[in-house]
Write a structure and sequence with these properties.
It is a single chain. 36% of the residues lie in helices and 22% in strands. By secondary structure, it is of the alpha/beta class. It binds flavin mononucleotide. One of its GO terms (molecular function) is oxidoreductase activity.
Length: 235
């Protein structure tokens, strides 16, 4: 089966998405598409290597990034014309969900969503903002300012392979989430798996509800259900 899996810039449900994508890549041909934000967020949560490994699994697999594209996204037409059996967007940010439900197509992934209907390729979307109210989510590595003693030299800074640490801050654009800093800080000031509570706004939950009404789109609420749903749709 040929699967196009698009990843947007959400940290929430990212771990689950990578896990399911890895499982599907064991016996399917996969094209991964990343939004500009996804490229950064994947790095921040330490999943860039997982993506590279999936691509290397099969010579037909490929990675397409929004950054490589032009403003009119001609590639989205090509991608959605008889080339794939199914298209998946997971995780889907509040931003991309809002754009899809309002028929806005100004990124590679929102263009693929718009074009999938025209090419009659089924589209599964897993939105991250599902229900109004609180959720718990993991944030990328950060330095606990109360624990940081601003050592000179800073062992965590010295251990960082990408020069991302300028105590007491981590440059999130440079950080690759390798967690070497956590092992070297003598004051345990680096936190790499902190969970925080976030509030899902009513407008974002409403947009998710609207997704269910759009033709050609199947809205799923659990990433783990994707393989079962693919079987149900394609038979
Ligand atoms: C570390 C990090 C985690 C993020 N997690 C989420 C998230 O879980 N859900 C969300 O809607 N946006 C999240 N964002 C914000 C999006 O990346 C941002 O809105 C971006 O513009 C989305 O673009 P895209 O929809 O084209 O991928 C996160 C940003 C960062 C830096």
């Amino acid at each position: 089966m040929k699967i196009l899996w698009a990843i947007t810039g959400a940290g929430h449900l990212l771990k689950e998405s990578i896990k399911t994508l890895e499982k599907l890549s064991e016996n399917n041909q996969i094209t991964i598409v990343t939004s500009k934000a996804a490229k950064e967020v994947l790095k921040l949560y330490g999943y860039t290597k997982n993506i590279e490994e999936i691509i290397e699994k099969n010579k037909e697999n490929q990675l397409i990034t929004d950054k490589q594209q032009q403003y009119s996204y001609p590639l989205s037409g090509k991608l959605t014309h008889n080339k794939y059996d199914i298209i998946i967007i997971s995780p889907t940010t509040a931003n991309t969900t809002a754009k899809i439900v309002h028929a806005i197509a100004d990124t590679l992934i929102t263009n693929i969503a718009a074009q999938s209907g025209k090419g009659e390729i089924p589209l599964i979307v897993v939105p991250v903002d599902q229900k109004q109210g609180h959720i718990t989510t993991t944030i990328p590595p950060y330095i606990d300012k109360e624990k940081c003693k601003k050592c000179t030299p800073c062992p965590a800074q010295r251990s960082c392979p990408t020069n991302a640490i300028i105590p007491p801050e981590i440059n999130t654009i440079k950080c690759i989430s390798c967690k070497k800093c956590k092992e070297t800080c003598p004051y345990h000031a680096i936190n790499t798996d902190k969970q925080i509570k976030l509030y899902i706004r009513q407008i974002d939950a409403q947009n998710t509800k609207k997704l269910e009404t759009i033709e050609n789109i199947t809205t799923l609420y659990k990433v783990e259900d994707i393989p079962k749903e693919i079987k149900r749709i394609l038979g």
